[in-house]
Amino acid sequence: MGLLDNASPRERQLVTFLAVVFGLLAVLLVPVLVTRGLGSKQKYNDGLRERIEGVSLAKSKLAQKKAAVGDVAGRYLNKAPPLGTLVDNAAKQSGLEIAVQSELPAIPRGKQYTERATKLSIQKTGLRALTTFLERIETSGYPVAVTAFDLGKRIEPDSYTVSMTISAFDREAAAPNAGGAK
After folding, report:
1. pTM, two decimal places
2. What pLDDT does 180 receive?
3. Over the range 79-116, which residues count as b (16 or more CB within 10 Å of their CB) and which as e?
């Protein structure tokens, strides 16, 4: 303590007091800063944990939806019969009379799918017969959809004129890989 040998007692007291203050600051300030830093890290980790749980929950929901819908290839295994036959059978069972029905040319949809369509016109029908017809088409078990629909009201009660396009979608079998599996 060479510096404090020549100092007065008051200066020694001030230096000692200053050393105690710095010591207390070091002892008290370090844990406060460490606690504060750990608290922010804990909040960050909690946020990450919530996001991970959200992703896990979303994965399980997605898996449930996939299982409910089934895989895409499975839906297209049951190829739709000619649309004229399918539409005529559904119309007979529903009590509808189709005025005009015409097949449209097949349209490729992407690399694996083809859309076949038939356009039909119904001159006079009631809503019950029409909904029964649409339900039979929808629940036929084939990849078939009503892709265009136009409904017009006639003068008579519960009488409508309908124009619609019904499409069937076919999945073409994937060609085997010529180079072999990689």
Report:
1. 0.56
2. 46
3. ebeebeebbeebbeebebebeebeeeeeeeeeeeeebb
